[in-house]
Each structure stands twice: as structure tokens, then as C-alpha cells.
Amino acid sequence: MRLLLISDTHIPKRAKDLPARVWAEVGAADAVIHAGDWVDVAMLDALAARARQLIGVYGNNDGPALRRRLPEVAYAEFGGLRFAVVHETGPTRGREERCAARFPNVDVLVFGHSHIPWDSTAPNGPRLLNPGSPTDRRREPHPTYMTVDLADRGITAVTLHPLPG
């Protein structure tokens, strides 16, 4: 099973559309997880139309129309692993401990907000993944997205993909 993780797309504020490579991944993925800051309902509708399965949450830049359609926290199970998705996890310092306490029954937590890719595991807690942003790199060298490959009730690969820009 292959998951596509994206966040902080900020379309159409930061870009007119997702990069072509990301759209290709949408078509290839078994599920797409978006960790918030869509900005416009049109992106939600476009992803929902093209993804086999879409899990998403709203972010701090998402207005009432998106908040009516998306939860603050989403839960799903993929490949026998329990996933949670949330936009914000707070400051870097203490993140693992804070997330382990907030999400005690989760194997993987996908989050966004910072536009900074992240991959760590909380002691006795979930693996924390932030795919960065495919459209707004901020202080990072490249815009990014992530893929997660699952098999035999486990993660076989987490890949951060840099994009031009």
C-alpha cells in the first residue's frame, strides 16, 4: 500500500495548482493524506475527485467552508496501522512527548503547519511525519511531499520527495 502525504498547499495563494509530480502521485497512491491549510475548497474538491481515498483536516488558514467539510483531527487505518492527522502540533521542543500524550492509541501521526519536513518517533508513542509543503518551501531548500509504503502491518519506507522551486 502506498500513501501520499501533503500539507500546506495554500492554493491559490502560494501557487495556482499542485506540481505535476504531485498530481501523478495522487493517481498512483492508494490514499492521499492532507494535513491542512488547503485555503480553497476547490483544492479539496479536485483531490477528492482524483484520489482513491482522501483523508484531510483543516488548518489555521482554512476558512468556514473548509471547516464545515473537514475535521480538526482525522483518524484512519491503513495496512493495520492506526493513523491520526492534525494540522498543528505546537513547538518543536517537546513535540514527541506532547503528541504521544495527545494521541496514545495511534501508530502514525501526520501533521503540517510548519512547512518543515519532519520524521521522528516519540518514545512509546507514534511516528510523527510532516511532509512539508509542495507549493511553499518557506525557509527550506525545496518544496516537498512524502510517500509512505506499507506492508505486513508495518512501514517499509518513508520517502521525502524534493520538488523544483
Low-confidence stretches: none
Report how far the terminal alpha carbons are from each other. 29 Å
Count of alpha and pi helical runs: 4
| Spatial strand order of the main sheet | 3-2-1-9-10
Which range best describes the helical content: under 10%, 10-25%, 25-40%, 40-55%, 55-70% or over 70%? 10-25%
Order of helices and strands: EHEHEHEEHEEEEE
**CA-based shape:** globular
CATH fold field value:
Purple Acid Phosphatase, chain A, domain 2
Q: Mean pLDDT across all residues, rounded?
A: 96
**What percent strand?**
25-35%
Number of strands: 10
The CATH H-level superfamily is: Metallo-dependent phosphatases
Q: What's the story with the biggest beta sheet? A: 5 strands, mixed
Known CATH architecture: 4-Layer Sandwich
Indicate the CATH class: Alpha Beta
